[in-house]
Amino acid sequence: MHLPEPRELIAQMEDTRARTLTLIQDLDAQQLMGPRLPTVNPLRWEIGHAAYFHEYWVLREHLGEAPGRPDVDRLYDSVNIHHDTRWDLPLPPLEETLAYMDGVRERVRHHLEQDAPDPRRDYLAQYAVFHEDMHTEAFTYTRQTLAYPPPAIGTAADPGWRAGGLDGDAEIPGGTFLLGAMQDGGSSSTTKSGRTRSRSRRSASPGPRSATPSSRTSSRTAATGARSSGTKRAGPGAAPPVWSTRRTGGAGPTAGSGGTSTAGNRCPPTRR
Known about the structure:
Strand content: 5-15%
Order of helices and strands: HHHHHHEEEEEEEE
Radius of gyration: 23 Å
Largest sheet: 2 strands, antiparallel
Shape: globular
CATH class of the largest domain: Mainly Alpha
Mean pLDDT: 78
Number of helices: 6
Structural class: alpha+beta
Number of strands: 8
Helix content: 25-40%
């Protein structure tokens, strides 16, 4: 399994943390808690939980260090803290939460910069990055669910994205291209039933096409991990805005009601 170099892991860690902070920086204390719903978490809890994941796996489980706070397991362990009780926890104020998050990040960064090569450490560090990436998606849909303003992300640098509607269709010329593997390349794959399936070259020759310009594009560059996204109007028939100002979702179960939650089940376990 290929793992990035420590400097790449540090860049990934900084990137995901910057996204986390961008997604909550404009929210007030009330918005950071929000109503008790089965489909979202209180954001002040969730950002602390994201940092806790880095600390638990990299610093504590692998490196044997002590937790940054004596109460972190009682606050942020999603396995043992039922979703509907997360609004009732004695969460630290935002400033303390951010200080805890920054402390964890600096400790992980120190080990990546200063310690000897350690594939297990690097695997867990990237695992925690991917986990926080997943939560940044959750922060975004939580804002949408609760009808908070759209976050300051995804703003295209190219002014062409804000140029308005586009007339006509995009012309795509036809041509010949290779579909599959070269016949003499020995490419094959195994199906779930254990049968070997050979793949050979096929030549496809589609004719010219035309298409209405897309109303939205979004990508994450595989080589660098950098994100880019934007919205472009495609004329009078364009889709409605991606961000809705209407709150979605109803009131969820209250603590002790026995209601079922989905938001608390999306994290990998923080216990072996």
